Amino acid sequence: MVELGLGGLADYRALLETHHEEWTRLDGLCRISISRFYRDQGVWRTLEREILPDLIERARARGETHLRIWSAGCASGEEPYTLALLFAFGAGLSGCPREILATDADPHLLERARRACYPETSLRDVPDSWHIAFDPSGEEYFLRADYLRQVRFLRQDVRHAFPEGRFDLILCRNLVFTYFETELQAAIARRLAERLEAGGMLLLGIHESLPESIPMLVQERSWLYRKREE
What we know:
Structural class: alpha/beta
Strand order of the largest sheet: 6-2-1-7-8-10-9
Largest sheet: 7 strands, mixed
Strand content: 15-25%
Helix content: 25-40%
């Protein structure tokens, strides 16, 4: 409001009613984009030791040649790149073919993700053995190209669009089920369930849960749901 020279909320509301492009700017300012590599370490250990091996076995049983994973609301890329590093350094995961798709609504965050250059604070939870994946440059760290190429980024707003196809694993953490209104949360949860393979997993933030029971999903942990077998 200061930037626009407005005196108060009523003036800003009036501006929104006559300048619809301002809604886009406001929407962007309301996003929370705090992230870092290997955030919530216990979740990543569970992925490495339990969830991914199970999904790999299920995919092979279906005759699939690779896993499909979607990171929804990926911000500046730390989450999908952590997945790429997990497959590189995790026990028994390095030989598994996979497709990692990451989406976000913010073009500026996606540009940062494609650049893959991060401050030291973003790496504070990364296991020591993983640091060889980064090249230091001044006060920043660049993810090496071998890992960068393993993630495909796409601009999409999860409120309005989903990527094509089905996925073995969907990560939708610290966005939809924290910041969206309950009715929208439920609608998105149902659509996410539809995009999972039978037996596939939906992973939320550790302090999140679905707003209502989704018949297609079985809760395995407070933050983890499996799609029922068809």
